[in-house]
Amino acid sequence: MRLFVRHLVTEKLRSGETVRAYVADLQGFSEYLSESGKPNELNNIQKIDQFHVRGFLAKGFGRLKKTSVGRKLAALRTFFRFLVREKVLAVNPAAAVKAPKTEKPLPKALTADEMDRFFVRNSETNKRDIAIFELLYSSGLRVGELTTLKIQDLDLSDGWVRVIGKGNKERYVPVGSRAVEALNEYLPTRAMLEAKARSASEKDALFLNSRGGQLSSRSVARILKTQVVCAGLAKNVSPHSFRHSFATHMLYGGADLRSIQELLGHASLSTTQRYTKADLAKLMEVYDRAHPRSGVRDEKPPMSEKSTRKKQASDIASGGLPLPKKE
């Protein structure tokens, strides 16, 4: 298991949360095998087949979301693929097992008014917390990217931040003036928290907890839960909602998908398109404004030159226009 974890971290570049989830899924699979009187993964792994995998996943159906079942299958596939590569197994027993089909829900984004209300209602809160959410919204960061930022990644004078995203990919993202202001107000507080840090990595972290340690993604989610209540927002808001809102508002403001893709750090444009699917009300608004026969626009679209000539000829024939003068 230790070799597999090292493989996930150093070769697959998986995040700490993903590694912990995979390890928990493998431990659950091992417990399932033991409880079922089937071969234990540690001493009889060669006897494991696709039916063991299917049985383990079937145990989760009904009480787990399809996405959770899919993640468990992904953990097993990755683990057995690693064992095949290491020549511990000849074939991957999870390779033939299909993942459950899941409907991908549209990402939930806050409206611009809701975002304003969030920041106004929480304006007197902890300076660190305001800086966190201003930066999430300003730059569209993943919460895991935000919590792993180092103080040296910031350039507030020029207004940008260096981000290490998925797959250890580096990108530079602009930081808006509101976020720059919030970060500048937080930095004196951070200096006091840094004095409590016990290691060099903690001293480098941009966002620190009250003990001087690096703030975790779970802590950010917990802080947000309180602030959403203070803002009186009825929506189910997560740290990722700020990323969705960033992408959606950029699109509505006229940014093209390619630029949004770069800012979000997406490898695929199709992923960006999921973040920027407009809601029905917005689509109707765009349709009413753009389509000549929507029933909303008063002005008629300009006619082509050919259509103009045809109309003039028709009007002349009917006596509606004077004949053109001969030169």
TrEMBL record:
Query: In terms of domain of life, where is this protein from?
Result: Bacteria
Instruction: Quote the cellular component terms of the Gene Ontology held in the record.
Output: cytoplasm
Which key words tag this protein in UniProt? Cell cycle, Cell division, Chromosome partition, Cytoplasm, DNA integration, DNA recombination, DNA-binding
Record-annotated Tyr recombinase domain positions: 105-288
State its location(s): Cytoplasm
Q: Which InterPro entries does the record match to this protein?
A: CB, DNA_brk_join_enz, Integrase-like_cat_sf, Integrase_catalytic, Integrase_recombinase_N, Integrase_SAM-like_N, Tyrosine_recombinase_XerC/XerD, Tyrosine_recombinase_XerCD
Basic and acidic residues bias located where?
290-307
Give start and end of each Core-binding (CB) domain. 1-84
Its annotated function is as follows:
Site-specific tyrosine recombinase, which acts by catalyzing the cutting and rejoining of the recombining DNA molecules. The XerC-XerD complex is essential to convert dimers of the bacterial chromosome into monomers to permit their segregation at cell division. It also contributes to the segregational stability of plasmids.
Question: What is the scientific name of the source organism?
Answer: Desulfomonile tiedjei
The record's subunit annotation is: Forms a cyclic heterotetrameric complex composed of two molecules of XerC and two molecules of XerD.
The reply on keyword Cell division is: yes
Name this protein carries in UniProt: Tyrosine recombinase XerC
Keyword Cytoplasm listed? The answer is yes
UniProt region (Disordered), positions on chain: 290-327
> What does the record list as coiled-coil region(s)?
none
Q: Name one GO molecular function term.
A: tyrosine-based site-specific recombinase activity
